[in-house]
TrEMBL record:
Keywords: Chaperone, Cytoplasm, Ribosome biogenesis, rRNA processing. Residues 9-90 form the RimM N-terminal domain. Gene3D superfamilies: PRC-barrel domain, RimM. The keyword Nucleotide-binding does not apply. It comes from Vogesella oryzagri. This is Ribosome maturation factor RimM. Its main location: cytoplasm. Belongs to the RimM family. An accessory protein needed during the final step in the assembly of 30S ribosomal subunit, possibly for assembly of the head region. Essential for efficient processing of 16S rRNA. May be needed both before and after RbfA during the maturation of 16S rRNA. It has affinity for free ribosomal 30S subunits but not for 70S ribosomes.
């Protein structure tokens, strides 16, 4: 499986118990949404992706605990610490109109209405009221609310976001 075919949804925090369970930090809107997928892909230490079959799971405070069919030993589970967890992009539901997966926004160029490049999206933040784009330029960083007042257009094909945002904001 190639990186481009997968969407990273979290990472393994370490082992949980002695029977091969792992703790997973999910970077998803709904923490337990990963349980909907029967197969998870984990990025191995050598950079290759390997499929694991989801057997069971539970929600713990701030984390998931997961049992994979292929893992029955604490040492093996502990060796998985730090591995990224991904799901094939083709299995993700298509987002509604004017909604985007964060992973699809990271790396996009951000320009304002005057076509001045402000930088690239390096991250997004959830603030409660709305999401915020973290845009890094050559010499500065801008935080732009991801709301219709400021977002003019998102063109995934062109890898560009047009914003109503001045250089001096």
């Amino acid at each position: 499986m190639r990186d481009a075919d997968l969407v990273v949804m979290g990472f393994v925090r370490g082992a949980f118990g002695v029977r091969g369970w792992v703790k997973v930090q999910a970077d998803t809107e709904n923490t337990d949404s990963l349980f909907d997928y029967p197969q998870w892909w984990l990025k191995q230490k050598n950079g290759e992706w390997k499929a694991f079959t989801f057997e069971d799971g539970a929600i713990q405070p701030k984390t998931l605990v997961v049992k994979f069919e292929e893992v029955d030993d604490r040492d093996v589970a502990e060796a998985m610490r730090g591995m990224q967890v991904a799901i094939p992009r083709e299995l993700l539901p298509k987002p509604p109109a004017d909604e985007y997966y964060w992973i699809d926004l990271i790396g996009l160029e951000v320009v304002n209405r005057e076509n001045i490049v402000l930088g690239k999206v390096t991250d997004l933040m959830e603030t409660g009221a709305n999401d915020v784009l973290v845009v890094r330029g050559e010499t500065d960083e801008r935080l732009i609310p991801f709301v219709s007042d400021y977002i003019v257009d998102v063109d995934l094909a062109a890898k560009r976001i047009t914003v109503d945002w001045g250089l001096d904001y």
